[in-house]
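for the recovery benchmark. tokens below, seq after
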């Protein structure tokens, strides 16, 4: 199962079949330049081979390159400014100045904020902190690693249908009434993997049901700031009881720097603090000092603006192409984040493997996203055809357009 997860996270890191198509394009151009006198420098059809790997849920290379001078300066500044404070043990619940900044941004007491080494780490520690074999309600399709990790701690997962504006509330109420659930976990902004955005009403209704049933409501908001359609997401209000917020700087700064945080109800912090300290003692403090300075200096806000502008045309290409080629399955207009998902209706279970292989040979990297579907809803979802997640920020609009058109062509050919 883990192998599948790794594979589906980023096949291109390991596979020669999906070299990044940008370097390909660069190679091709320089090849032409070097061989101006020759008619063609490539052999046969290889020249026309294009590729896109829709599995790559990663920031664009150019975004990370732009970060290099800021990160270099930021880390140096962090060590110079804080010295042994960030090189020594300490700040178990996270670097204090960063906790304060996160407390301010969510308007909560910083004591309620625990900053860790990435979003997945704080999620995992939270899953470790609740009683074993707890019932957890999740969206019908969600972040696959959350499902894997919850199962590893022996928790039971119950999926509830997602609509284009959030959770199916009738179904949610029914499940919450019937099953003594400890936690609900949802991704309300630019959801992974579907790309949907919850309406404010839906989100608040979910919180209300959770409160009535004493279910801890946990929102993973790591895509909140990555909205590219010119609008701003309305931030979630946190009260004494919750909701719990989980987030990450992976997609807004960089995955390598690994920093994420959780905002907890006050009376949960002490318990969670013990789990945290016994799992990893202190987090990576130089990273947290760099990120605190990045935010304070205003460079983070500028970088977010840059990311929004960079990803907007990619998102638009995705929306236009999905609407043109898959109008029947793309009712959701993607407005930000990293993902969209489609069900290829003509690709039934028996055809799945051959289709994915054919797509790979044609240069389109996709995978079945069954690991991201709640176990109790997998069978039902399979009836809609091959469920696959498409990521777009790492690619050029033209590549995205080509890839979606190719997927449609392959689906047509397979029927
Ligand atoms: C919804 C969601 N939560 C958490 C994470 C993990 O973030 P991190 O890389 O900071 O561990 C991801 C990463 O893709 C994600 O999509």
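predicted aa per position
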């Amino acid at each position: 199962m883990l192998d599948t997860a790794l594979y589906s996270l980023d096949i291109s890191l390991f596979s020669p079949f999906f070299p990044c198509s940008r370097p390909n394009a660069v190679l091709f151009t320089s090849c032409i330049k070097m061989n101006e006198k020759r008619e063609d420098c490539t052999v046969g059809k290889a020249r026309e081979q294009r590729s896109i790997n829709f599995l790559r849920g990663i920031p664009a290379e150019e975004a990370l390159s732009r970060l290099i001078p800021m990160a270099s300066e930021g880390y140096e500044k962090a060590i110079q400014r804080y010295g042994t404070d960030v090189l020594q043990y300490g700040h178990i619940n996270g670097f204090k100045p960063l906790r304060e900044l996160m407390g301010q941004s969510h308007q909560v007491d910083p004591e309620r904020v625990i900053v860790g080494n990435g979003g997945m780490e704080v999620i995992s520690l939270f899953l470790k902190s609740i009683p074993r074999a707890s019932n957890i309600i999740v969206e019908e399709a969600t972040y696959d690693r959350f499902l894997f990790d919850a199962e590893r701690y022996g928790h039971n997962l119950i999926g509830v249908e997602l609509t284009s504006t959030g959770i199916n509330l009738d179904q949610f109420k029914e499940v919450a009434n019937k099953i003594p659930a400890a936690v609900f976990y949802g991704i309300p902004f630019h959801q992974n993997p579907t790309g949907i955005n919850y309406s404010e009403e839906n989100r608040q209704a979910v919180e209300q049901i959770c409160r009535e049933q004493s279910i801890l409501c946990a929102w993973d908001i790591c895509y909140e700031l990555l909205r590219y359609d010119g609008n701003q997401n309305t931030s979630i209000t946190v009260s004494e009881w919750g909701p719990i917020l989980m987030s990450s700087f992976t997609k807004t700064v960089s995955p390598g720097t690994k920093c994420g945080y959780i905002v907890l109800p006050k009376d949960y912090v002490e318990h969670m603090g013990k789990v945290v300290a016994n799992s990893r003692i202190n987090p990576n403090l130089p990273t947290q000092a760099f990120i605190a300075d990045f935010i304070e200096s205003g460079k983070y806000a500028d970088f977010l603006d840059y990311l929004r502008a960079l990803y907007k045309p990619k998102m638009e290409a995705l929306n236009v192409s999905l609407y043109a080629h898959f109008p029947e399955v793309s009712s959701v207009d993607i407005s930000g984040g990293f993902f969209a998902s489609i069900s290829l209706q003509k690709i039934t279970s028996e055809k799945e493997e051959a289709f994915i292989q054919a797509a790979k040979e044609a240069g389109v990297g996709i995978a079945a996203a069954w690991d991201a579907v709640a176990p109790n809803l997998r069978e039902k979802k399979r009836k809609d055809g091959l469920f696959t997640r498409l990521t777009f920020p790492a690619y050029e609009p033209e590549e995205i357009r080509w890839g979606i058109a190719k997927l449609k062509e392959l689906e047509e050919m397979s029927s």
